[in-house]
Design goal:
With 461 residues, this protein is of the alpha+beta class. Helix content is 37%, strand content 23%.
Amino acid sequence: MELNIKVSFLLSSQLIESVLTLANPVGRIYIAYSGGVDSHVLLHLCACTPSLKDKITAVYVHHGLQAAAEAWPEHCQQIAAALGIDFKVLRVNAGAANGQSPEEAARDARYTAFKTLLKAGDVLLVGQHREDQLETVLLQLFRGAGLAGLSGMPDRMPFGQGMLLRPFLNVAKQTINDYASTQQLSWVEDPTNQCSDYDRNFLRNEVLPLLKQRWPAIDKTVSRSAAHCAEALGLVNEIAEQFFEQVFNQADQTLIISQLHLKSLLHQKLIIRQWFAQIGLKMPSQDLVGRILDEVVGANEQSVPLISTQGFEIRRYRDKLYCLPQAVIEIQQTKSWSNHQRLINIGNHQALRWIESPTGILAEHWHAAQIEIKFRSGGEKIRLYGRTGHHSLKKLFQEAGIPPWEREQMPLIYLNGCLAAVGDLWISAEFYAENPTACVRVVWQRQESDPKDNDEVALVD
């Protein structure tokens, strides 16, 4: 395919180069190539830029949702080959989970797949344009979104280990179509785009044509409004960050409730939203923020309130507000631990490991004993080195400020039937020793789940 570089001012190699100059990529340039007209024009423009050609990989994500799409990867590969561009197909499972729309499921699967490709210094280019921005802002408005939703899609954002760029975000759809026609490009048409059952398609096919008759420049004006909202959001976030830092405990990612109570209700809401952003969750709804403040923050210290959201649990304990992975708890059973086995998995994404230590349990006792891992059944007591008498684990947990949900998961290490250690917190005085060269100590390892990336608004297609 011979490349014709007679292009308009808006759509030119210079546009791509200027966008990439600001991002300063040092690695690969991936192009999200669906085979549609928008992504084809983006790919063609990049291929017109000699300095980029060796860095580009066109990526087609195969969702496997419709039979008509089976031929599209081959079409995309042929186009990429004709342009002299590397090509890759990523197959994903785009089935929708409970409460998830098909569009959201496909989008999440697609962007998760893209993220696996990017390394530090890499960029992903996507072909979303000004009418995509218009649709996104209107859909967010109809859903009652706040500033974050009404800001629409950013033209650039961190993505995985690299960056995501939208070079066409201020380009009209007609300009893209004109370029494709002038360059005599061939592309695929997704038949589902004509189905108005989906919200975005209904808006695009049924509503926007009427709006454009009355307001022809609506894509430009709404995009301008989105930019104003993005600026306002930036200012709000700066203010929220200042209040957030006064309340946030970096060590365990919690909020200090007594400090939160000192803020006005408006500032409390800002802090909760900032907290969700900090820990990588999607922005909470107005209703959810209200429930957190009323049912959890407002609860007395003796209660154990809980709100579940996005696979996480919002809890409070004493003066802290926690956001914890919502784990499926396995039934804890006694496990034997070979005294020459350094690591043992104990379920619920937990493991125990013993290491050499100058203080702890004498190594000769450890290696000679029958070791068992048990969990609390109630009434356990332990005598600690340097303290008189025996102490119930319940009292020790309270003294140490161990939240109730952690106590039930705390592994208890028994040597020859006697309680020798409580997780990696305490060692029984009967077993405790100080010997720089001959002790072992137990380390309790817990694998935490990672929250989803906060891409709900920024990654809408």
